[in-house]
Specification:
Length: 187
């Protein structure tokens, strides 16, 4: 997909704006606030990944996106303190001490899997549920392509390991963000 980094980043920022405006028509204020939190961290993460090319920081911030989406789907009062405390420890070890993208990617993958499981079990109106799940599945397909695109540098394999991956990242990522951005609207 031939889009400049500025256009990609502007698109993601536009999804945040759409989600902010959807607050006027949201079905549940708590759901909407966690969606906004997730999208704010998405924009911040993409600023590291797309604009500044700082992969460690970008992946670290993306972990928080999934934390917000997990809390969006559960009774956050019961789990918030324990989950944030445990996650903060893991995040600090990976980012501040080890400086390892691989360990951080493992934490990210765990949070993403948990995000999908929790949202799969969430009780939402039918159409909102489908928007969230479709958005998360497209998001996961994006991340599979991110892995395929970046894997060669860790395996010592040719850079043409999976040439379509760079395009497929955006084919899946942009629609995923649109679906998530509108998923709090009362339908």
């Amino acid at each position: 997909m031939i889009l400049s980094p500025d256009i990609k980043f502007a698109f993601v920022g536009g999804c945040l704006v759409v989600a902010l405006l959807s607050g006027f028509w949201c079905r549940d204020r708590k759901d909407w606030l966690f969606l906004i939190g997730g999208l704010v961290f998405t924009v911040l993460s993409d600023s590291y990944l797309i604009v500044e090319q700082k992969h460690l920081s970008g992946v670290a911030v993306f972990c928080f996106v999934h934390v917000f989406y997990i809390f969006r789907a559960i009774d956050y009062k019961k789990w918030m303190l324990a989950a944030f405390s445990g996650f903060a420890v893991l995040w600090c070890v990976a980012v501040l001490v080890l400086q390892s993208v691989i360990i951080l990617a493992g934490i990210y993958a765990f949070l993403f899997a948990l995000n999908i499981i929790v949202n799969y079990k969430a009780c939402r109106p039918k159409l909102n549920y489908y928007l969230v799940m479709a958005g998360l599945i497209l998001f996961a397909l994006c991340d599979v392509n991110v892995m395929l695109y970046n894997l060669p540098q860790y395996l010592g394999v040719s850079e043409n390991f999976f040439p379509a991956a760079l395009t497929l990242i955006w084919v899946f990522y942009l629609p995923s963000q649109v679906l998530l951005a509108v998923s709090a609207v009362r339908l």
